[in-house]
């Protein structure tokens, strides 16, 4: 997809399609008004007949609009003008892009970054338009034997901005938007790949390729023997139940000077989670191929940082394994020793994410990160608590949690904080080891974070539970690429505040 920006009158665009907004109820946006004037009231006449009332995402395609140079005009409903925020704006871009992609226009000029979006300037509107249009056009069909050939796919999008003075910053916004979109795409592709393709070794290969794409990036992949030497007994206990060897993928990106401490990103890379001996029920178990979406988000964020040449230092740490019920698998009651020296009684082998993450987090200490953020499809309880709209967010460092919440709001990839109070820690008490790997009834997302907090005491740390947000279930099953949007926003905010 090709994106560009320009500034000019809608009636003068020689394009396959010009897209303008209409608010509820039948209130024309500035660009729609302009077209209406040029066409002697063609649009307002039409709307008066009731074909479009302005509900968010409604579209109407018009041909032969008088006194215009374009082949088509698309009207899109934007809802109530005073409610028009980032979420509604993205809905509008998504609806328009889907509708256009199914129609005959192969390029279009969007007069949508000109709409008044609450709290957003032109550059952010342009960036969000790029990210959202690319999101809407995403397909995962690489494993179908015959790829459906689209007759006339949308190829070129031109975003119109109100003033030429904003051209330079808008072009930069396109560049940033494309970087983020590319990161999101990588995360979605990796997530959607099935467990028999996307194994720990496959993830390591993909990470290698990513590192190879930049002089500023380097990679190390630790195998099981190396992990054993480091004493990663918790991580290795999970992979013992599977024939695929575990990998610890360590990616570094050096975009800033030596004096800048890195941001460490740690992602759960369970390429398939059957639960182990505490095996999961059969229904929807296929979706546990998505249990590596934390890892995918780490790689997606690194992809974006490399693409945009961000001036930050990053370390990505990905513990990757399968969780299957083999004869050598963990058994309920087994006790293992983590790299930190703390012992863990495994009361449920399906609480495996924390077992691989705890050793990865201990390993991360050696990079002396400024902050560490882990992301994991960690608990079904998080879906019960927050559904699919917000990531669960917990952490031991107020400013970091605050910055992540804000990055979520700004990017539209939002999180909600849950309490990481000491009160919950006792739920992890074990009769036989330093801790149990499950916290019993109640507050499953919090007790999982409590578990991780015992391995991050020396660092400024935050945890994102993305169990409800990393993919969409059901007939529209697909990875979302979240939380790449939030993380890149967090990095951009850090760079901005440093200046
Ligand atoms: N990967 C799952 C969590 C999960 C389940 C994410 C469903 C998304 C959808 C994780 O490894 C797991 O199995 N967690 C258990 C923990 C429990 C045994 C304490 C869970 O949530 O049931
Ligand atoms: Mn599990
Ligand atoms: Zn899992």
What does this structure look like?
With 499 residues, this protein is an alpha/beta fold. It contains 14 helices and 21 strands. Strands 8, 9, 10, 11, 12, 15, 16, 17 and 19 form a 9-stranded mixed β-sheet that branches. Strands 1, 2, 3, 4, 5, 6 and 7 form a 7-stranded mixed β-sheet that branches. Helix 4 packs parallel to helix 5 (167-192), helix 5 (167-192) runs antiparallel to helix 9 and helix 12 (398-411) crosses helix 14 (484-498). Ligand BES is lined by residues 273, 291, 348, 350-353, 377-381, 438, 444, 467.
Short description:
The protein folds into two domains: 2-137, Leucine Aminopeptidase, subunit E, domain 1; 182-498, Aminopeptidase.
The residue fraction in helices comes out at 25-40%
The CATH topology of the largest domain is Aminopeptidase
Distance between the termini: 33 Å
CATH homologous superfamily placement of the largest domain: Zn peptidases
- Overall, the morphology is elongated
Bound ligands, named by name, code or SMILES = ligand BES, manganese (II) ion, zinc ion
* The CATH C-level class name of the largest domain: Alpha Beta
Q: Which architecture of the largest domain does the CATH hierarchy give at level 2?
A: 3-Layer(aba) Sandwich
Q: Provide mean pLDDT, rounded.
A: 98
Oligomer: single chain
Low-pLDDT runs? none
Number of helices: 14
Q: Strand tally, please?
A: 21
- Let me know the largest β-sheet: 9 strands, mixed
The computed structural class is alpha/beta
Radius of gyration, in angstroms, nearest whole number:
24 Å
- Overall tally of structural domains: 2
Strand content: 15-25%
